[in-house]
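User: quick one, fold this
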Amino acid sequence: MNLYEFQAKELIGRFGIDIPRGRVAGSADDAERLARRMAFPRFAIKAQIHGGGRGIAGGVRFASSPDDARIVAGELLAKPLVTSQTKPSGERVRWVYVEEAFDIAQEIYAAVVVDRARGDLELLVSAAGGVDIEERAAADPRVIARFPVDVTMSPPESDFIGAAHAVGLTGGIAQKAAEVFANMARVATGLDATLVEINPLAITTDGRMIALDAKLSIDPNALFRHPALAALRAQIQMDEGDPKELAADRHQINYQKMDGRIGVVVNGAGLALATNDMLIDAGGKPANFMDIRTTASSLDIAYGVGVILENPATQVVLINIHGGGMQRCDTVAEGVAVALRRARRQVPLVVCFAGNNADFARTRLKGAGVSFIDARDMSDAVSHVMSIVAKAAA
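Assistant:
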């Protein structure tokens, strides 16, 4: 679960990390009112989106008065923001963050991330903080120094002072940085975060160390331990999610619309990815990603198949199901039959059933009067699909 900057700052501030004073605004008039109330000499007006690269794309701007804050906020809220980390059409700016601007002496990059190879946390630091850190690190990995974090200790431990020295800090300011790094590790373990990033961690001209920007990603599988964050996730989904994707989630289906013409019905995320990869390798373009969860009923599956059939771009549907102990093939077949009875349009079906009740699933489809191509295996299924797509294009 990715949080917006203003949400991330609110949370890391609770762990003793110094953040700028600021408030979030949903309109230009709100931005002006907040700026007048806070009365800073200078303001940073920051578009709130999940993609990085805002600074280069003009999503972080400055204002010297409340009137300027209103003008800048209005411009940022008027159109989507396109950055190197958003889709080509950009991301809608629903809010701007109005905060105090600082005079900066030095910018540092710091992050606590999950090291998937070690199955542990790792502290990353760099003296080259600010914009383009990803590109600079890709060009020269030595730009970032890495320090393992011991999560078996409470609070978690690492060579935090060594990390401060690695970015060229000494004396009292190095001790301040070490405290920030330690608090970032506390955020990661305390909130079950997979990413805690501060970029830049700024040293101001008056000697403060302050998090000018923050990213925070929470492991969604750990939200049961954080009811308040789970409620926040639900609100984020309500505010910005695609209605069909949210409805599919409530029907125990992970669904993501794509821009192709081949509908895909699969159980299991790994099998779904492999199915889409095979279609792409064969020259096809999936119309969606779908992972039917083991908890989905036949009516849940019917909803998901119906969403695929409602997509006017869908020319053919590939149903690739490996029945396991908790999700039988015949349950999926029943859902498919219900969806087709409800559907306003019919498209060719290519079916690949394997595993628990595979033969019975084929029988159920035939008994329901469903016409389909019965594929021997995944390769055969992809071949049939591509033949149908080719005929439709002819």
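User: anything notable?
Assistant: The chain has a mean pLDDT of 92.
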